[in-house]
Structure to design on (768 residues):
């Protein structure tokens, strides 16, 4: 019984939240890795792209709510998500047309692209704050919990309960569908194969008649759609804060590099590793160990490796370790 | 100096003087002081990017380390904290050093395959030993009068000393980071520095025993007189009246700002002189040769990695000096105010606009961008007011847009960066 309690405790505070967070990071990292694979630069504007897509989804949610449209018990935001995706895709296409295409034609250095993406980041950050303001926005509606602690305890008779928020389930389900669709696209379709070929060897792909502009366009569309989905899910799970997206960019980069740059499978893996490390390193294992130990025994102190304040720092420690030990990442990607 | 440089600098000077006449001299000198600090940061970035092509996106971290140095040098020590926890802190430091030494020795003693296991095996007891002393010590320190102190305090030395020390601290951090990430290629360096700067901010934010964290350190001693003292000082009153100024309190504000400006100009002049000397020297030519063609320079026998580390450390040191100056000017350390948009990416816009690779350009960029960053707020609200003027009175959309006009500055900075990168990639004052 105690082992079951310990497991329930761990699930409630570590496994479930980390799974949802990992799914959000994985979606973000997939976008970064695809842009890297095709356009070969680290896109600093990706966090703001997530924010932009989420903002459009929020505005659409508000509109739907004001019209009385609802798909309760699911959140209205799911209905508004396509609008967010379209807005992000539109934004990505605009920036590519007016900003990045110029440097692509000039075959500029990847650092130039990265610096230019900083400019794009500034512009998007400004637009977002002018349109929706700098404040937190909560836009989740519908049922809040799928399983509450009380229900779980009543059903199992354990001391510890597991609460599962609806947003967490939605996050994981949506992420699964999106990732499955993306891998199907990359592995099975003509344009997916073209993209992989282009990513592996640009010259060879050009020789075999692949239109580079089209590959780039598809890459932007996929990355923007992933960004909008990731941003909306993140906002749904926590709250939407414009300021948070520059911060979340860092764990996303860490996940990308950890998984191997340009490797979609690695991005997903990296996202979950980063999320689980962040949550586990900052979790106090005191009560968990107390359940596992002999009756009445309680460990001294909280048995916490780092205070929760260092949550974001964990991803960088991992990042630095990866850079030192295996710069190509878990699944050998490209070294930038 | 060419005519163009002189022209740009005099224009910038005229604009600041215009602010003095039309807004107030207090505002003008306030802007000038931050322009000077920004210019120093831009010089640091220019050394790394302009001379050597290193893309450092962690300037915020080095600036914050400089600011931390200002606290640790100039604040009065908290005796009580040292008494209750000094010994334990020392023991925890000793355990940390002991662990590191033990790991280094053990790594040498065992065969290569076993090394990772030995490291982990030693790391775990080392960590718990260090925390055994460290945890309780910090708790005791933070418990002492948390509303006022709750930290170790500083050394109580003159704050001007913190400026070079801030540079040294940042240089040390830069050396460590450079060692880790300079061997890798460009984008990795960017992401690694971005991450490490966030770690530095996290440490300053949450290690309250060291920096008071989010409770902020206020009242960092000043190297210049206080306004309240000046207003009462006889010599100042007679000095002000001899200049024909009636409002002594405003005159005191301006006087203090001029004192700061003189100090900052002196620092900027020293760094500028050194930077120019370095750039014109064989060392500067070598750096540019490495930047332009790394492989060729390596083939000529230049140690690319060592030179990159060198210039990276120098650039970080300059940013650290600027950070210490900034904390001195503000008189406080507020860790939450360190955000990358302001302390990292804005500095980059300065360097790109001014002209990367040219020190005069970087300084000019610092002035122009800081000025625009400050003035974008009134400008933005004016633009928004004009745009929303045709809308009906009390329209919610109009109010929302006017409220959001502060963020026009992000838009403006992004637009400047994108336009310069596209149409004038060499910046206002191109590299010679």
């Amino acid at each position: 019984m105690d082992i079951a309690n310990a497991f329930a405790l761990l699930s409630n505070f570590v496994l479930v939240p980390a799974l949802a967070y990992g799914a959000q990071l994985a979606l973000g990292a997939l976008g970064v890795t695809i842009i890297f694979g095709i356009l070969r630069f680290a896109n600093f504007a990706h966090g703001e792209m997530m924010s932009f897509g989420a903002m459009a989804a929020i505005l659409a949610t508000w509109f739907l709510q004001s019209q009385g449209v609802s798909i309760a018990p699911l959140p209205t935001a799911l209905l508004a998500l396509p609008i967010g995706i379209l807005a992000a895709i539109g934004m990505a296409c605009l920036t590519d047309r007016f900003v990045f295409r110029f440097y692509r034609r000039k075959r500029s250095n990847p650092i130039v692209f990265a610096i230019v993406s900083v400019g794009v980041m500034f512009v998007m950050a400004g637009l977002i704050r002018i349109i929706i303001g700098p404040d937190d926005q909560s836009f989740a509606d519908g049922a809040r919990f799928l399983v509450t602690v009380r229900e779980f305890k009543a059903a199992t008779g354990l001391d510890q309960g597991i609460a599962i928020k609806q947003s967490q389930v939605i996050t994981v389900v949506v992420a699964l569908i999106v990732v499955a669709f993306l891998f199907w696209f990359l592995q099975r379709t003509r344009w997916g194969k073209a993209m992989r070929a282009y990513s592996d060897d640009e010259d060879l792909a050009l020789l075999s008649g692949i239109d580079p502009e089209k590959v780039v366009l598809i890459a932007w569309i996929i990355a923007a759609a992933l960004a909008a989905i990731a941003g909306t899910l993140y906002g749904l799970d926590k709250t939407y804060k414009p300021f948070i997206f520059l911060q979340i960019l860092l764990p996303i980069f860490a996940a990308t590099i950890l998984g191997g740059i340009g490797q979609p499978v690695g991005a997903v893996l990296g996202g979950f590793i980063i999320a689980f490390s962040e949550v586990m390193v900052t979790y106090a294992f005191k009560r968990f160990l107390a359940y596992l130990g002999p009756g009445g025994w309680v460990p001294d102190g909280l048995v916490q490796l780092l205070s929760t304040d260092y949550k974001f720092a964990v991803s960088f420690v991992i990042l630095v370790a990866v850079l030192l030990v295996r710069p190509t990442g878990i699944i050998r990607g490209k070294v930038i | 100096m060419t005519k163009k440089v002189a022209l740009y600098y005099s224009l910038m000077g005229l604009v600041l003087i215009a602010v003095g006449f039309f807004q107030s001299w207090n505002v003008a000198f306030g802007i000038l002081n931050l322009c000077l600090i920004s210019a120093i940061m831009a010089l640091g970035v220019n050394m790394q990017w302009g001379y050597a092509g290193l893309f450092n996106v962690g300037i915020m971290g080095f600036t914050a380390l400089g600011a931390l140095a200002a606290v640790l040098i100039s604040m009065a020590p908290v005796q009580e904290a040292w008494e209750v926890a000094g010994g334990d802190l020392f023991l925890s430091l000793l355990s940390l050093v002991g662990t590191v030494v033990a790991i280094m020795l053990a790594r040498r003693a065992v065969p290569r395959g076993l090394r990772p296991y030995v490291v982990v095996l030693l790391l775990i007891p080392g960590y718990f030993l260090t925390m055994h002393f460290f945890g309780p010590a910090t708790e005791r320190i933070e418990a002492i009068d948390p509303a006022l102190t709750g930290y170790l305090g500083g050394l109580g030395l003159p704050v001007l000393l913190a400026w070079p020390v801030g540079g040294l601290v940042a240089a040390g951090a830069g050396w460590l980071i450079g060692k880790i990430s300079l061997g890798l290629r460009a984008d990795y360096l960017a992401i690694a520095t971005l991450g490490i700067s966030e770690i530095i901010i996290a440490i300053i934010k949450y290690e309250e025993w060291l920096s008071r964290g989010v409770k902020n350190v206020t009242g960092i001693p000043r190297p210049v007189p206080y306004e309240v003292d000046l207003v009462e000082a006889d010599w100042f009153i007679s000095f002000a009246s001899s200049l024909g100024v009636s409002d002594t309190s405003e005159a005191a504000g301006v006087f203090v700002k001029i004192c700061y400006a003189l100090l900052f100009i002196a620092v900027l002049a020293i760094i500028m002189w050194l930077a120019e000397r370095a750039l014109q020297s064989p060392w500067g030519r070598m750096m540019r040769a490495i930047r332009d063609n790394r492989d060729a320079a390596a083939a000529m026998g230049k140690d690319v990695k060592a030179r990159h580390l060198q210039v990276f450390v120098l650039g970080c040191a300059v940013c650290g000096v600027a950070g210490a100056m900034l904390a001195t000017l503000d008189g406080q350390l507020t860790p939450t105010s360190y955000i990358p948009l302001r302390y990292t990416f804005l500095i980059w816009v300065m360097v790109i606009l001014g002209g990367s690779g040219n020190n005069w350009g970087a300084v000019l960029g610092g002035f122009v961008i800081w000025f625009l960053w400050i003035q974008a707020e009134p400008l933005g609200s004016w633009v928004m007011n004009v745009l929303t003027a045709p809308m009906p009175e009390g329209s919610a959309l109009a109010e929302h847009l006017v409220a959001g006009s502060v963020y026009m500055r992000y838009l403006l900075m992004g637009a400047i960066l994108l336009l310069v990168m596209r149409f004038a990639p060499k910046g206002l004052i191109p590299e010679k």
User: Anything to note?
Assistant: The first helix of chain B runs from residue 3 to 22.
